[in-house]
Design goal:
The chain is α+β, with helices and mostly antiparallel strands. Helices cover 25% and strands 25% of the residues. It has helices spanning 12-23, 61-80, 99-111, 123-129, 149-162, 205-211, 225-238, 320-323; strands at residues 4-8, 28-32, 49-50, 84-85, 89-93, 118-121, 137-141, 145-147, 166-168, 175-179, 182-186, 191-194, 196-199, 244-250, 257-260, 273-279, 284-288, 304-305, 313-316, 324-328, 338-344. The protein has a four-stranded parallel sheet with strand order 9-2-1-13. A four-stranded antiparallel sheet has the order 14-21-16-19, with no helix packed on it. Strand 10 (175-179) and strand 11 form a beta hairpin. Helix 1 (12-23) runs parallel beside helix 5 (149-162). The chain is flat, with a radius of gyration of 25 Å. The structure holds flavin-adenine dinucleotide.
């Protein structure tokens, strides 16, 4: 029997996947896109650069796919008569302090086989390429190109339709249920059954994941009694309510998170987030935000390493998110896996935003 495949998301990833599947005869393919047009989210609002592979770690999957993708995007644009402009890219060291970082980009670019890369020294050499640039040195990647990713997506969508695939616009997937080995997909105006559903929902992937039960809310079946104990303990001790938790996995020292702050649906001053560490102890840094609250801090300028170990609970409240940023630092030495279990309040309008800007409550508006 022909496999029935549903794809959620009509950005470039969903449409490219649909195209690859129909051209290979993998089954009956249906794409659901909630907007009235394709590519209206990231795909149609990005910078339009075909990256040449300057930054990625040599040998990594990103570097390999970037090199292959550069070639296939060019071929596809030529075949379809779509714009492909090799405008080139200059990566500039604006002063001496950036020369080390530039040398590393040059090393990676060469290792990644970026074609015809040239090192330029001095302002005059840079201005031969770009008259408005200011800097002391640069690497020039002449084949970095600019394209119209929305047009590429539309062209690939035509390929999908021509090969018998369906693309349903204005069709938001609002529910999914398992029916034996099949998946029932529901939109406001239709229902469908598939053998396989693939989510390509871009930045709304978390919303789609929740449709199939990812995430947990109070009242759902409890994933583990220990987690519920911690949940109750922190709620009682700090007088807050949590309605969800998430897991963040750090596989080894190469996984980390830059300095940031989190917020839930409340003001940053009222946000309380609890983090339970499972697995390896590793640096977990706090530093004051360089803002107008800095003078209120005892540790102005300080960086604190809480280094939570297995079973340690970190509770961030009392205006912590308004005044402090935190990071899970990357480490060079061998280090085991760490899982951070995080309790939050996510109810209300919209969804929680990491590191979001926020309007100061009245009593801080001096
Ligand atoms: C500011 C910015 C600049 C970038 N610049 C570049 C660049 O220069 N070069 C480059 O190569 N990459 C760039 N990127 C990355 C690139 O744009 C993305 O990797 C790529 O567009 C992701 O495509 P996507 O199909 O996964 O996501 P999207 O284009 O976001 O598509 C996801 C689609 O899923 C749909 N959807 C979501 N939920 C549902 C649902 N429940 N039912 C039905 N449909 C749903 C959405 O409406 C959307 O159309 C940039 C990204 C950003 C944000």
């Amino acid at each position: 029997m022909t496999e029935r495949i549903g794809i959620i998301g009509g950005g470039i990833v969903g449409i490219a996947l649909a195209r690859a599947l129909v051209l290979r005869g993998a089954g009956e393919v249906t794409v659901f896109e909630k907007e009235q047009r394709l590519a209206t989210h990231q795909t149609g609002r990005n910078s339009g650069v075909v990256h040449a592979g300057l930054y990625y770690a040599p040998g990594s999957l990103k570097a390999t796919l970037c090199a292959a993708g550069r070639v296939s995007i060019r071929e596809y644009c030529v075949e379809k008569g779509l714009p492909y402009r090799e405008v080139g890219k200059l990566v500039v060291a604006s002063d001496e302090s950036e020369l080390g970082a530039l040398a590393e980009i040059e090393r990676r670019s060469i290792a990644n086989g970026v074609p015809d890369l040239v090192r330029l020294e001095g302002q005059a050499a840079l201005r031969d390429i770009e008259p408005h640039v200011a800097g002391v040195a640069a690497v020039h990647s002449p084949h970095t190109a600019a394209v119209d990713y929305a047009a590429i997506t539309e062209a690939m969508a035509q390929d999908v339709r021509a090969a018998g695939g369906s693309i349903l616009l204005g069709s938001e997937v609002t529910a999914m249920t398992l029916e034996g080995a099949a998946v029932r997909v529901v939109t406001p105006t239709s229902e469908h059954t598939f053998d396989r559903v693939i989510a390509c929902a871009g930045l709304q992937s978390d919303v789609v994941a929740k449709l199939v039960g990812a995430g947990w809310r109070v009242g759902d079946p409890v994933p583990h009694p220990v987690l519920l104990d911690v949940h109750r303990h922190v709620q009682g001790r700090y007088g807050v309510r949590f309605d969800s938790f998430a897991l963040a996995r750090y596989r080894d020292g190469r996984d980390g998170q830059a300095f940031h702050r989190d917020r839930d649906m409340r003001w940053l001053d009222e946000t309380v987030i609890a983090l339970l560490t499972l697995g390896a102890r590793r640096p977990w840094l706090l530093r004051p935000r360089a803002n107008r609250y800095a003078h209120e801090l005892d540790h102005h300028g300080a960086v604190l390493d809480l280094a939570p170990g297995p079973g340690d609970l970190v509770v961030m409240g009392g205006g912590c998110q308004a005044r402090w940023e935190h990071s899970v630092a990357k480490v060079r030495r061998p280090i085991g896996e760490r899982i951070s279990v995080q309790w939050r309040w996510t109810s209300g309008q919209g969804r929680p935003v990491q590191g979001a800007s926020y309007r100061a409550p009245r009593h801080y508006s001096r």
